[in-house]
Amino acid sequence: xxxxxxxxxxxxNKGVIMSVLVLGAFVTILNxxxxxxxxxxxxxxxxxxxxxxxxxxxxxMLTNGVLIPITPFLIGRLSTRKLFISAMVAFxxxxxxxxxxxxxxxxMIGRIVQAIGxxxxxxxxxxxxxxxxxxxxxxxxxxxxxxxxFFAPALGPTLSGWIIEHWTWRxxxxxxxxxxxxxxxxxxxxxxxxSKLTNPKFDFxxxxxxxxxxxxxxxxxxxxxxxxxxxxxxxxxxxxxxIFVVLFIIRELTTEEPMLDLRVFKYNVFTISTLVSxxxxxxxxxxxxxxxxxxxxxxxxxxxxxxxxxxxxxxxxAIMSPIAGALFDKIGARPLAIVGLTIxxxxxxxxxxxxxxxxxxxxxxLYTLRMxxxxxxxxxxxxxxxNQLPRQFASxxxxxxxxxxxxxxxxxxxxxxxxxxxxxxxxVGTYRDTLTTTNPMLNSMLADLGQKLAMQLxxxxxxxxxxVGQYLYKMVMQQSTVDGINDAFIVATILTFIALVLSFFLKxxxxxxxxxxxxxxxxx
Length: 524
What we know:
With about 525 residues, the chain is mostly helical. It is built from 20 helices and no strands. The chain folds into four domains: about 1-200, Growth Hormone, Chain: A, CATH 1.20.1250; about 205-260; about 265-420 and about 485-510, Growth Hormone, Chain: A, CATH 1.20.1250; about 425-480, no CATH class.
C-alpha cells in the first residue's frame, strides 16, 4: 500500500468510480464542441448576428471559468456523490432547455445551465483521482481521464457535421441525454462518497472578486478574437478583470479560510507544470480554431469533412494517453514532455507552410502527428505538478490549474485569431500594391484576359474586366487568409518552443506526504 494513500480508500472500486466520472466528463465536453459547427445554422434559425450567436460559446466558457475557482468550496461542502449527480442533473436540464428552445434567449439560458454542471466536472474528477490513487500510479489514471478531455473535442465536429448535414441541429442536444441519464443512474447506484467533507466557510469576498476578475478577463480575450484589441469593451474588461484578480489574490493570501488557496504555487514543480500547461493550451486550442477555418472557409470542404480530418488525431490521442500515463508512472514527466513538445513544435511549424494546394491527406497527417505529440503532454505535465501537493491542497491545486488553463486557452485563441486577422489585412494590402503599382505587365495581362472573357460570354469589355477583377480579388483574399493563418501558426510554434524550454525544468519529486513519512521513519 502506498504511504500517501489512506486506508479507507483501499476497498473502493476504482474502476467503477473512474467509469462514472469519465463518462460524465466525456458527455459534457462532447456537447461543448458539438455546437461549434452548428453556429451558422443557429444564426439563420434564430435570425441573429454572428456576434450574438457567439454568446452561446462565450457564455458557456464564462460560466465554466467562474465556477472552477469555487469547486474547492463545493467539494468541501458536498459529498462526491451529491456534487457529481447535481452537476450531471444541471447539465441534463440545460440540454433539455436547449433542445426545445423556441428562441435565442431560451437557448442562452440552457447553455448557462449546462455550463454550471460541466464547470464542476473536471476539477471534481481530478480531485477524486488524487484522493483514490497513490502518486506512483496516478499517471495512468490521468491518462484515462485525458480520453474524455481530448477525444470528445475532436469527435464533436465530426459527429456534429454529420448531424447537421442530415438532420436538425436540435439532435445535437438530444444525443447526450441518454448518456447523461444513464450516468446519473450509474452514479446513484455505484458511486461512493470519496472525498472528506471539511465544511469550509463561504468566502463571499473571494467569490465576488474571482467571479468579476476571471469573468471579465475571459470575456475580454473572447471579444478580442472577434473585435480586435482596440475595442473599448475589450480594453475596459481587461483592465477591470486585472484589478479584480489582484484584489482576489490579496484576499486569498490574507484570509484564514480562502476559497482558492494560492499557497499551492509555493510548490515549484506545480508552478512550472501549470505554466507549461498554460503555454501548451494557448498553442493547442488556438490552432484547433485555425485548422477548421483553413479547411472549410479557404479550401471549401464540408463540416463533415473538416470533422473527419480531426478524427484520426482524436483516435491517436485516445490510444496514447493511457500509454503516456503508464510511462509517466515509470520515468516521470520530463522525458515525455521533451519528446511530446519536440514533436508538437515541429508539426506546428509545418502547419505554417500551408498553401492553396496543400493536400487534404497532408493536413490530416500533420494534425494526427501533432496530436500524437500532444498525447505525451496532455495530462502528464499537470499530474507531475499535482503529485507534489499535500492531500489537503488537492482540490485547490486542481481548481487553480484548471482556472489557469482555461484562461490560457482563451488568451491563446484570441492571440492567434488576432494575428490571423491582422496579418491577413497586411497581406491583402501587400498584394494590392503589387498588382496596382509595381507590376504593369500583370495589369496588361489581366486587361487582355478581361477582353477575351467578355468576347466568350458576349458581354461588354467592362463587364469582362469586372469579372476578372472579382475573381482576382477573391483569390487575393483567400491567399492572404492562408498567409495570415501561416503567420498565426508561426506564433503558435514560438509558444510550443517556449513550453519545450520550460519542460527541461520539470523535476521528478516525491510527494510531500511520502517525504514526511520517510523522515518520520528515519527518525524512529
